[in-house]
């Protein structure tokens, strides 16, 4: 018995299968088959609003993808394969294609490195232009699998900073470790201290240091981005694996050891201070005076002084220096590493 497709074309639905290599038109015909298995090209044309010639072309495409099987009850009769099985097979096939593409990319990268060495090429490239630099900055983070090291100081190439926070949160959620040393002056901008606190709550390990010497991003100990000139936003050096990269990594680790922990490495690192207390201490560690902190928080200077006295009482210390030392010990072990975390390469 013939199926009973809709009397006229149904409104097209938003495509959902393009990620599996199925075109929107193929998907539309496939959906019509699912609604009326065994339909003829003429019936499918009525249901989809496509011409019979186009329907036949999409039917052949769906058959090649394994989404349709030829029926035994007549010519040009097809039956849709069960979507859960057929689409799973396509998904697995696409995963295999991606895996092969990654292997090919690794081989091409090796050919590139070998050719550069044969030609006496340098492991250092100069990248110019704000747009190209921003793209490289985000791409370097998005391809990292283990750890990102950052020396952060103004001026900033990438604006708005919200985009960087979004990318970083995505990578943190994927298990990529972030360690950042912030320049003390860089935390003086509106909302900067609050932004670093939010990142710390999601897993970033952050420290602060006066006069960070340069801006730097290192991904997985395999590539570094560093400005050609510290204040320049138009040129950066892209440093591949080399003695220079090893030196930049050593510089970061040296500054990391010298820097002061800014926030707890993760939520609940200690229970003695409220989020408001931690924000005040963060401003204090960033080098702000009581009057500057008061302006930043929108309160009177006496309020800051009173809250600081209460924090010192809670921590059981007598001076602000002791409060800084005390909170540093609360934020992690002596070298600032969270317990149980090993440094990945």
UniProtKB/TrEMBL annotation:
This is HTH luxR-type domain-containing protein. It comes from the Bacteria. It holds the Pfam family GerE. GO terms for biological process: regulation of DNA-templated transcription. One of its GO terms (molecular function) is DNA binding. Residues 266-331 form the HTH luxR-type domain. Gene3D superfamilies: Winged helix-like DNA-binding domain superfamily/Winged helix DNA-binding domain. It comes from Streptomyces silvensis.
């Amino acid at each position: 018995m013939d199926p009973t497709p809709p009397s006229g074309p149904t409104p097209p639905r938003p495509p959902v299968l393009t990620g599996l290599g199925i075109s929107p038109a193929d998907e539309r015909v496939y959906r019509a088959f699912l609604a009326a298995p065994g339909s003829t090209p003429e019936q499918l044309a009525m249901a989809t609003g496509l011409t019979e010639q186009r329907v036949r072309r999409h039917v052949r495409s769906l058959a090649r993808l394994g989404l349709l099987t030829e029926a035994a009850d007549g010519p040009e009769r097809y039956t849709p394969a069960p979507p859960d099985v057929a689409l799973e097979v396509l998904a697995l096939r696409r995963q295999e294609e991606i895996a092969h593409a990654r292997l090919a990319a690794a081989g091409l990268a090796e050919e590139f490195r070998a050719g550069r060495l044969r030609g006496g090429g340098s492991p250092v490239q100069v990248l110019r232009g704000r747009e190209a630099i921003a793209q490289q900055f985000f791409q370097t983070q998005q391809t990292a699998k283990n750890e990102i090291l950052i020396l952060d100081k103004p001026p900033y190439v990438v604006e708005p900073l919200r985009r960087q926070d979004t990318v970083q949160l995505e990578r943190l959620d994927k298990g990529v470790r972030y360690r950042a040393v912030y320049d003390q002056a860089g935390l003086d901008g509106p909302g900067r201290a609050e932004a670093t606190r939010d990142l710390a709550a999601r897993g970033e390990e952050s420290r602060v240091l006066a006069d960070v010497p340069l801006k730097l991003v290192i991904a997985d100990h395999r590539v570094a981005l560093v400005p050609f000139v510290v204040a320049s936003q138009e040129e950066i050096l892209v440093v591949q694996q080399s003695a220079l990269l090893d030196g930049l990594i050593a510089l970061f680790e040296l500054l990391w050891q010298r820097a002061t922990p800014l926030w707890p490495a993760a939520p609940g690192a200690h229970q003695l201070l409220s989020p408001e207390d931690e924000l005040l201490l963060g401003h204090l560690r960033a080098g702000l005076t009581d009057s500057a902190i008061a302006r930043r928080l929108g309160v009177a200077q006496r309020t800051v002084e009173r809250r600081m006295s209460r924090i010192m009482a809670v921590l059981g210390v007598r001076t602000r220096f002791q409060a800084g030392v005390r909170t540093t010990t609360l934020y992690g072990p002596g070298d600032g590493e969270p317990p149980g975390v090993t440094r990945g390469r």
